[in-house]
Design a protein that fits this description.
- The protein contains 13 helices and five strands.
- Helix 7 crosses helix 8.
- 54% of the residues lie in helices and 7% in strands.
- It starts with a strand and ends in a 5-residue tail after the last helix.
- By secondary structure, it is mainly alpha-helical.
- A three-stranded parallel sheet has the order 1-2-3. The protein has a two-stranded parallel sheet with strand order 4-5.
- Helix 8 links the parallel strand 4 and strand 5.
- The relative contact order is 0.14.
- The chain has two domains: 209 residues, HUPs (Rossmann fold, 3-Layer(aba) Sandwich), CATH 3.40.50.620; 89 residues, Tyrosyl-Transfer RNA Synthetase.
- It binds adenosine-5'-tetraphosphate.
- Adenosine-5'-tetraphosphate (AQP) binds next to helix 1.
Length: 327
């Protein structure tokens, strides 16, 4: 059976971009693969986090994993920092990487450009991500399109290591969703939807109230052309709304274009509010049942034990091949 691995940072409430680009695939893939899903708290500290909020967000993301349909009987669910091998392997990969290849990562360029001085963790973050993936002999990594370059780097690092030290790592593959691999911000549809964007109406979080969803969609930036048609280059706002609508309604974009021929943007937005709110109701109900339960911590503890067992095996192989002694 193939193995799937991925993760989400506990940096705030998960938005529909994270859901469509990543989590929805996590749920589908747990049915056909050996699945491991992580809450990547070590990644979140690449930028400063409030310790109390970090703890809350970690449990929030874990509860949302279960609420969207991840099943602890089918997938290992755990928190990254509870398995120390992630940091250990990241250092080993750091020593087998080059600053040149890390400086080419577009996410680093984007995230560091507004800062006077970029944190080192932001620069080396793709190496930790590579460690996460390689530690579990991962075949498939379902992530949003913004992470594709990091998967390519992971493949390069794994191949380089295997060539130098002998076969150690499985070479993983990126898996993107066909519709919605990059959901855009509602206020600025040329930027990706993000948890950390200042304008809260730029995103729809899975825990948003129906009123907040309505405001976010009704305020979404469109264009003055008046025609409902998918054209990402010339009509990024409408194309983004059609993508979101398609995912939540299971209607194809072509079906939606047909349905809304001759209609105004107001009608499209009004219907989309309803479709999104209907989908969020069930997720939110499950979330509030799970979030404060003891069951949640038990699932994470169990996940840590299972992940640790797999990670230890890989680290044994890595250390042996590198020439580290065991006593
Ligand atoms: N807008 C998006 N469209 C599709 N997929 C997306 N992902 C993120 N944004 C979009 C995918 O969601 C998964 C989890 O992302 P993450 O939490 O690890 O970090 P991120 O990519 O940095 O997400 P954000 O929301 O933009 O957070 P901040 O603002 O904290 O940086 C990944 O698979 C990602 O590709």
């Amino acid at each position: 059976m193939k193995r799937v691995f991925s993760g989400v940072q506990p940096t705030g409430n998960i938005h529909i971009g994270n859901y469509i680009g990543a989590l929805k695939q996590f749920v589908e893939l747990q049915e056909e693969m050996d699945a491991i899903y992580c809450i990547v708290d070590l990644h979140s500290i690449t930028v400063p986090q409030d310790p109390r909020a970090l703890k809350q967000h970690t449990l929030d993301v874990a509860a949302l994993y279960l609420s969207v349909g991840l099943d602890p009987n089918k997938a290992i669910i755990f928190v990254q920092s509870t398995v120390p091998a992630h940091s250990e392997l990241a250092w080993i990969l750091t020593c087998n990487s080059y600053t040149g290849e890390l400086s080419r990562m577009t996410q680093f360029k984007d995230k560091s450009k507004e800062r006077e001085s970029a944190p080192t963790g932001l620069f080396t973050y793709p190496l930790l991500m590579a460690a996460d993936i390689l530690l579990y002999d991962t075949d498939i990594v379902p992530v949003g399109n913004d992470q594709k370059q990091h998967i390519e780097l992971t493949r390069d690092l794994a191949e380089r290591f295997n060539n130098k030290y002998g076969k150690t790592f499985v070479i993983p593959e990126y898996r993107g969703t066909k519709v919605g691999a990059r959901i855009m911000a509602l206020d600025e549809p040329t930027n990706k939807m993000s948890k950390s964007a200042e304008n809260e109406y730029s995103r729809i979080s899975l825990l948003d109230t129906p009123e907040k969803v309505k405001k976010s969609i009704m305020r979404a930036t469109t264009d003055s052309d008046g025609e409902i048609r998918f054209d990402e280059k010339n009509k990024p706002g409408i194309s983004n709304l059609l993508t979101i609508y398609s995912v939540f309604s299971c209607l194809s974009i072509q079906e939606l274009e047909k349905k809304y021929t001759g209609c105004g943007y107001g009608q499209l937005k009004k219907d989309l509010v309803e479709v999104v709110n209907d989908s969020l109701v069930d997720i939110q109900k499950r979330y509030f049942d799970i979030r404060e339960s003891e069951e949640l911590k038990r699932i994470l503890k169990d996940g840590t034990e299972k992940a640790q067992t797999i990670a230890e095996k890989t680290m044994k192989r890595v250390k042996e091949n590198l020439g580290f002694i065991t006593l």
